[in-house]
Amino acid sequence: MAAHCTALQRETSEASFSAAGRYDVQQEVPFNFLLFFIFKCATNFFQQFCWLFLDYLYLLSIFSFHFSMEHPKHATYVLYSLKDREFYIGSSSDFDRRSIEHEQGRSKSTAPRRPFVPLLCEYYFSKKDSIRREEYFKTTAGKRTLRIMLKESLVEVNLSKS
User: Fold this and answer.
1) What kind of fold does domain 74-160 have according to CATH?
2) Half-sphere exposure of residue 56, counting CA atoms within 13 Å on the CB side?
3) Is this prediction's pTM over 0.85?
């Protein structure tokens, strides 16, 4: 009978420890509780990380300088006629539109000299700079400079399109 009382006391004492929230050395921690604890810690860490990251982005937007690169719109370009083997030098504020006009023959100066290969295109912020470069390329010294600058390109174009 004494052994029965001792076992009963042990069972009631373990139950009272569990009810009080303390765990006996012999009692195992439930797996669900561990998962909940790990999830809760990870969630708290993630929330804190998110708030810190949002604070960082906010401060970055206040104190950072926004460098947006503006693309120059005035172009000086050099086309090479495969028909007469001569340059066509021009300038435009809308190079894409102008190159389509040259391709389709809608320009009186280039229509009879088609097809063309674009060899060089330089962009400038100032229209005056673009026109000055165009005028230089149209001089004898400018054409000589172009032939030196584009020596290998001219060889490739003449060999591939012959």
Assistant:
1) GIY-YIG endonuclease (3.40.1440)
2) 6
3) no
Q: Where are the domains of the chain?
A: 74-160
Tens digit of each residue's pLDDT (9 = 90 or more) over 16-73: 444 555 544 455 555 565 556 666 666 677 777 767 776 766 666 666 556 567 889 9
* Pair 40, 60: CB distance under 8 Å: no
Burial 13-22 (b: 16+ CB within 10 A, else e): eeeeeeeeee
Where does the chain have alpha helices with state H? Answer: 2-19, 31-63, 95-104, 127-137, 140-149, 151-160
Cβ neighbours, 10 Å, residue 90:
21
CB atoms inside a 10 Å sphere around CB 113 = 19
